[in-house]
Amino acid sequence: MYKVVVPGDFISTEVNRAGEGTYVEDGNVYALKYGVVDDRGAIKVVALSGKYMPVNGDVVIGKISEISFPYWIVDIAAPYEARLRKSEFGRGENIDFGNMCEYLDIDDLIVAKVMNVDVMMRIDLALKNEFKMDGIGRLIEVSPTKVPRIIGRSGSMIKLLKDKCNCFIFVAKNGRIWIKGRSADMDIASQTVMKIANEAHTSGLTDRIAQFLDSYKSEKERDKVEE
Amino acid sequence: MKEGKIELIKDGARLSGRGFEELRPIKIEVGVLKRADGSCYFELGDNKAIAAVYGPREMHPRHFQNAKRAVVKYRYNMAPFSVDDRKRPGPDRRSQEISMVSRKALDPVILRELYPKTAIEVYVEVLQSDAGTRTAGINAASVALADAGIPMRDLVSSVAIGKIDGEVVLDLDAKEDNFGEADMPIAMVARTNTITLLQMDGRLKKEEFERGLKLAMNGCRKIYELQKAALVEKYSKNGNGA
Fold it and tell me: CATH fold of A4-47, please?
């Protein structure tokens, strides 16, 4: 079990180990956020809720919200809207005011990389190679603070999910998750993802999820036999 | 203060049977609203308040944006059915003032500079009122802000003191507020003893003020512990398994 702290909770006196989610006052480290303490390495408070804040290099799933030449305005589940320049499609393309929507229309989903965030919080996106999300599959949204848990340590959790659910699962940094597969597989995958998100603060989660998936599967098989 | 006289202290006890330094029973629930980013239900005796926090999100209208920091919007609203005589719904002079002072009570703990150009919206609805709704609102809002994952230096706790029948007492109820001599709500950061809100209605002598302040600060510390406990409980409840 991790230790849950609330803003202003005293954590430690080791000022030089103070990390993310903490602040230092009078030689003490205090929690800045409501979350769990992680003191392997630097002392960090991992928040359990909160909005996505874009960082250079993050791969996110965005939704086109507006077309405003020469940009697409993209909603990336952050407090700020992001822009995608038309030149992202390459110099060869002849994109103008009129045909932008033929490339990307409003409500289209894309996979993009955050290229630059400036001091005025203007966000520029770059397209990934396979950027189009072609309407197949499901998109679920969780708090971006749960993303590390869904991926697991060095990808253990996501690997487990992909193996046991037979799905293509893509987890973006902004908490949007794209699941592609057969309908029944997607059901279990999305259910499991929500379960991970709800229990992100507990320890031994990967094992429990493995158990959960196994019991779900055996249940399914039993149903089949009965039929 | 209404005219008329009621004996508020009988045989050394308050009408409610509480001691002079006793808070009303408190109940705190975290995360009661599914669609809000953070929420809290707060009960202080017969006061029932619910707070919802949204954000940080884009600030609209745009010209109210601040290029350096987030803007906190606070809306205190009393439900029409929250008081004895139906309250005319909608914002009025009183609720606007309370919204403003409550916002200023919470502003100092929020790290607004981390989210430039955004708005952090706090909505406080008073469902039932029995004097001290602004303090209940601030307590609820502070927990809801933490629940929304907003970076804060600390929680803010709030309570009122007052003077009834010549005695300084903690946490007035409606009768004591209406027929008492003074009412003073305060909000503070319990760990650092930083007072972020202090209002006074009525008159207190200097010694009474000082004694009242001490009482209120003790009250805030108690509420602070309850706020903390409620937040910690949210993540130990649905803990292992299940």
Answer: OB fold (Dihydrolipoamide Acetyltransferase, E2P) (2.40.50)
Record: contact B147-A23, CB cut-off 8 A: no
Chain A residues touching B118 at Cβ < 8 A: 79-80
Please tell me the CATH code under which domain A138-226 is placed. 3.30.1370.10
Q: Per CATH, which fold does A59-132 belong to?
A: OB fold (Dihydrolipoamide Acetyltransferase, E2P) (2.40.50)
- Asked if B236 and A4 come within 8 Å (Cβ–Cβ), the reply is yes
Q: Which pLDDT score, from 0 to 100, does residue A227 have?
A: 63
What average pLDDT values come out for chain B (242 residues) when binned by 10 residues? Answer: 73 90 96 95 97 94 94 97 95 97 97 96 97 96 97 97 95 93 96 96 95 96 97 74 34
* Domains of chain A by residue range: 4-47, 59-132, 138-226
Q: Which fold has domain B19-236?
A: Ribosomal Protein S5; domain 2 (3.30.230)
Provide the ipTM: 0.89
**Nearest residue in chain A measured CA to CA from B234:** A4
Nearest CB to B232; choose among A4, A25, A51: A4
Whether omega for the bond prior to residue B116 falls within 30 degrees of 0, making it cis, is: no
DSSP string, A57-117: T-EEEEEEEEEETTEEEEE-SSSSEEEEEGGGG-TTS---TTTHHHHS-TT-EEEEEEEEE
Give tens-digit pLDDT for A46-104: 999 999 999 999 999 999 999 998 999 999 999 999 999 998 888 778 888 888 988 99
For A199, nearest residue in chain B (alpha carbons)? B239
- Residue A25 phi/psi, 5-degree rounding, is -145, 130
Grouping H, G, I as helix, E, B as strand and the rest as coil, residue B84 is coil
Amino acid at position A50, single letter: G
What residue segments make up the domains of chain B, in order of their start? 19-236
A143 touches chain B (CB under 8 A): yes
